[in-house]
Amino acid sequence: MPAVVVSDGNAPAFEGRTTVYVIICGIIAAFGGFIFGFDNGISGGVTAMDDFLKEFFPLVYERKKNAHEDNYCKYNDAYLQLFTSSLYLAALVASFIASKVCSSFGRKPTMQIASIMALLGVALTAGAKNMIMLIMGRIGLGFGVGFANQAVPLFLSEIAHSKIRGSLNILFQLFVTIGILAASLVNYFCEAVHPNGWRIALGIAGVPAVILFFGSLIITETPTSLIEREKFEQGKQTLRKIRGVENVDAEYDSLVHASNVAKQVKAPFKKLMKPVSRPPLIISVCLQVFQQFTGINAIIFYAPVLFQTVGFKSNASLLSAVITGLVNVFSTLVSVFLVDKAGRRILLLQACVQMFITQGIIGAIMMAKLTPTSTLSPTEGVIVVILVCLFIMSFAWSWGPLGWLIPSETFPLETRTAGFSCAVSMNMFCTFIIAQSFLSMLCTMRAGIFFFFAAWILVMGIFAYFLVPETKGVPIDSIAERVWKQHWFWKRYMVHDYAYDSDDDERKTPK
């Protein structure tokens, strides 16, 4: 049977309104998403630039210029893929470190560390003289991305009132898409700058990192983090400030209670392995796997390369990437307006249908029309771009933002940073797999790669229908009672919902 939908009416009412200050804090923090998006988008454009290829990947450059080279294989190079994928491997490692920093020192310092690491990475990549500097720079950027992706979604969920939590959290994904669009525009203009256009493109990645660093000096820490670190009065004052009302006693007491429960758990990663933690952990991890195996990042990373494969010239392929970037941004805005009205589940399910159809048609066109040595006709090429846009559109209002939103709002406080770090690390691991293997998969599977992704989309649609519950409008610290314990499948794991002592051993008395 399908998942039970939990209505807004079940949630306790906490006083508060949407304040300008909260929106400003959300926008500044969301620049962490901009860093992620820009680094996602910039690598595909840079790897399509001849000056960059000649300096670091001369063999790929020669294959690219060979008119008789296999369309599907001319960019297949392990080191070229490593340039893109090394960032995500570093982010995977960084997410576990960031989890501890986030809990011990707060969300703000974690974002500041993210910006510093990103700036170091930018300096190395933009000034790279050899492959070692280039890869080390991408690793530095990866640590920045890992820290930002850990802190920002948690920050956004924790400062938002439950009625706008979805919309505010999606600012992260919105800025990811703006970063991708900005990268596409930078690539488009820098491609004509010889011989150092690629250095300019990589160097501009430092701008959002600077904004995040200085912006994080003026935003607040979250009340949850302050209370978690026993700064109770400061936490209550901050709660009043972000809610815009004086009477915050009910929400404050809820946060203090959640903090007291969390303090009983000295080994949060160990508690994640307990049955009671399985519902949010399984859903959060699976969402990351499914998000990446839609094929979205294969398209985002290598959009210019993909469009060149189907016959577009270099400049036209970069322009096509700009178009898809615009679609990405505006479609994410759809999610901002709908997620707290329509809910999470309907967006996930609708998108699965649209993504399945578009991936299947793209694969069919390329299988029928694109041989290893031919190109698509201009009309067929335009159709592929339109289908890519339709695919990105559906992803951008669903699995893209909700892949970050749902994990950030479903863990209880005692396992929130640990659980979210598992989600971030799984996302980075799957992103690494796609980034490192896509060009080789394209060479081996040819058009069949799109059917491969379509099969994954079918599986994730079934998963979402039966196992992903609705969390719209439910306060973040009421998810266990209002969602997991009411769900037809997950409630079986909540039967033994025990408190834990300092050694994380089960007490005899249930909560």
From TrEMBL:
Q: Where in the cell is it found?
A: Membrane
Looking at the keywords, is Transport present? yes
UniProt cross-references to InterPro entries, sorted A to Z: MFS_dom, MFS_STP/MST-like_plant, MFS_sugar_transport-like, MFS_trans_sf, STP/PLT_plant, Sugar/inositol_transpt, Sugar_transporter_CS
Which stretches make up the Major facilitator superfamily (MFS) profile domain? 25-472
* Membrane-spanning ranges: 20-38, 78-98, 110-128, 134-156, 168-188, 200-219, 281-305, 317-339, 346-370, 382-406, 418-439, 445-468
A single GO cellular-component term from the record reads: membrane
Keyword terms, alphabetized: Membrane, Sugar transport, Symport, Transmembrane, Transmembrane helix, Transport
Matches recorded under Pfam families: Sugar_tr (PF00083)
PROSITE patterns, per database record: MFS, SUGAR_TRANSPORT_1
Which topology term describes how it sits in the membrane?
Answer: Multi-pass membrane protein
CDD domains named among the record's database cross-references = MFS_STP
Q: GO MF terms on file?
A: monosaccharide transmembrane transporter activity; symporter activity
From which domain of life does this come? Eukaryota
* Family, as annotated: Belongs to the major facilitator superfamily. Sugar transporter (TC 2.A.1.1) family.
**Any idea what this protein is called?**
Major facilitator superfamily (MFS) profile domain-containing protein
Which organism's genome codes for this protein? Aquilegia coerulea (Rocky mountain columbine)
